Amino acid sequence: MGTMQLLEKCLKGLKCLKGEKTRDRRPITFKELACLHRALRPQFTDSIDNVMLWAAFTLAFFGFLRCSEFTCNSPFDPEYHLSRTGIIFYPNILKAEHFDVIIKRSKTDPFRRGCRLTIGSSLNEFCPVRAMKNYLLQTPSIPESRPLFQFESGAPLTRATLTSHLRSLLQQQGLDETLYASHSFRIGAATAAGSAGLPTWLIKTLGRWSSDCYERYIRTPRDVLVSVTSKLIANTNQKV
Questions:
Q1: Alpha-carbon distance 112 to 144, whole Å?
Q2: Count of structural domains within the chain
Q3: In what order do the strands lie in the sheet with 115-120?
Q4: Is residue 149 part of a domain?
Q5: What is the CATH number of the domain that holds 61?
Q6: How far apart are the C-alpha atoms of 152 and 5, rounded to whole Å?
Q7: Band of the pLDDT at 20, cuts 50, 70, 90?
Q8: Is residue 145 part of a domain?
Q9: How many separate helices (H) and strands (E) can be counted in the chain?
Q10: DSSP code for 155
């Protein structure tokens, strides 16, 4: 190992021990989701980009996803990135009550075992199942060899473009866009789950957090996972 490589590793170690100052990011809550929905108007627009962004936003939130798990920040690799084959509707796309997301690799999965997440439906505008179904039905020409989320131009949704569009849309709605970033969806999902009274073990399971690792061995019934979306929505009916 060269001197510079050794120095770099030492600096990284010191940063981990001391901790780096990070800018606080505001969570995307149902208030912000409502603003994004008003700006995108996915149920009325002719813009596939708007429909795609809304599907990505709702998946990020209700799936407690890390940005790297649903965006494409390097040349597309079907063994790593999310594609259309990673979305499975039940019982089918036309009568979908929920869908599964196949995450092939993530930050806390160094051995690439992958994981399967279940996203339930709701009866209001925030429904992630309806958002995903509408996007896929309107873009049947996108091949499986492409990222799941891509613009009409063919460009994939990246962390940078996600953050750029997110901030632009929030700014249009009169919010301080500088307070938000791609990770705001995951922070917001955890915040909403806590407010909804979901048990700690379930929140950790949904977010796949590594702390208290023993709780990850709890086998969560599918009906519990399917009900999560409705429980989060029900807690905000009087707030939005």
A1: 20
A2: 1
A3: 87-90, 98-103, 115-120
A4: yes
A5: 1.10.443.10
A6: 42
A7: very low
A8: yes
A9: 9, 3
A10: P
* 135: enclosing H helix or E strand: helix 128-138
Q: How many residues does the chain have?
A: 240
Per-residue pLDDT at 130 = 97
First to last CA, the chain: 56
Whether residue 2 lies inside any domain: the answer is: no
Greater confidence (191 vs 19) lies with 191
Q: CB count, 10 Å around CB of 36? A: 23
User: Is 240 inside a domain boundary?
Assistant: no
Report the alpha-carbon distance of residue 87 to residue 236 in Å, rounded. Answer: 27
pLDDT in tens, 30-80: 999 999 999 999 999 999 999 999 999 999 999 999 999 999 999 999 888
Q: Whole-angstrom Cα distance, residue 208 to residue 202?
A: 9
* pLDDT computed for residue 212 by the predictor: 65
